[in-house]
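Researcher: Before we compare anything, I want clean individual predictions. No alignment, no superposition, just each chain on its own. First chain goes here; please echo the sequence and then give the structure tokens.
Model: Echoing the first chain and its structure:
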Amino acid sequence: MASSDELASALGEVLGREVKAQAIPREAWAGALQQMGLPEGGTWAYEEMIDGVNFGWISFSGGETERVEGTTSAKQVFAAAKAAQ
């Protein structure tokens, strides 16, 4: 699993500029989500979902599972997305 810093670095390489990962404080989530296009007053469901994952209220399970890592790097994914523009 890649860290936020590793993903930012890979994206920066593809874009040819510095990209830094930055945590958004909980109290700023609504404003940030609105800047990304969610309507004012319509961010609550996303915020609750992320809180649920962060606080362990939501977990992903289903019995016996096996972790399988992909072979496509983050840099390859970002490059393909850039090429598809």
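Researcher: Okay. Second chain, same rules.
Model: Second chain and its structure:
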Amino acid sequence: MFKSFKEMPVWQHAIEVAETIHNLTDNLPKKEDYGFTSQIRRSALSISANIAEGYGRKHTLDKIIFYYNARGSLTEIQSHLEYAKKVGYICKEDALIVDETLIKLYHEVNKIITTLRDSSV
């Protein structure tokens, strides 16, 4: 068992995604600072935040809800990446690399959800 959420590999991967998204969006047009840039960064940060909050919850069903929320934020980023590619904010190669990381993270979060669900039955 982990002593802190910071020790969880899934949280570490999620915080790396947030950092990657931050760096990837650093040079977007200034007109997007309070729109798209802010939204995709908040979505990215929400993954690790929900994982941390899920870790801190006592009851299994509460934990599961936060892991589902993390998964939702993850797919939100995938949607934002598709938009960013279409409007030329992010090149296809960068978007593909991030998407592959997000797919792996999605599977990690799903494993946690499945394990928690199976243990609560």
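Researcher: What stands out in the second chain?
Model: The chain is about 75% helix and 0% strand. Additionally, Helices lie at 9-24, 36-56, 60-86, 92-119.
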